[in-house]
Amino acid sequence: MTDIIPAPPVPRVAVRGGGTFPVRRIFCVGRNFADHAREMGATAPASKAERGSPVFFHKPGDAIVTGNADIPYPLGTRDLHHEVELVVALGADASPGPLAPEAAWALVIAYGVGLDLTRRDLQGAAKAKGLPWDTGKGFDHSAPVSELVPARDVGVLEDRTLTLQVNGEVRQHGALHDLIWDVPDILHELSKLYALKAGDLVFMGTPAGVAALVPGDAFVATLDGVVELRGRITG
Known about the structure:
Strand content: 25-35%
Radius of gyration: 17 Å
């Protein structure tokens, strides 16, 4: 059967060492650092036994911005916020049914660092009315991401930190050992709800310090010792 319109290109992220990663879906995790949960007015769990279930949302695959490209200030908002995050790339399909946490690492092919850009005013207005807040999260250019680094070259994730600088000033800094749900936990929980496939990206949540970005701001996001992402917000 012939397409009646040209097929859109598959979004792709460069991989260090060569090749690209074709993006299927983008899963995102909310409130995965206790300090960020508290700054957003939520109660943070005191222990793993009290953490309940993670919060998930999505961004469209074509929301990614690669190559340290400029990011246009989005439509419909006056309060664009940054959220620096570990990005996990899946290189294999999960078996049907819930994934055992100990099997999760075998799905991971690479890591990067990204920003979960958020139209905070739209998200806040939707929350206040008890409505879905998709428009606050899943918009054009809302998922800038670095090149991906093969997992074998990253080492122990818990020893790494995330940092975001805006105009040379540190805005966010957090250690990955402070994640409420780590990578195996999150992949296990996602597999209860979705069929995880090669090509999926998972944005793992942000530490405290989220704040506004305005046109002209330049940012540098780093997964320390591994990779960095640079960009600028344009008007």
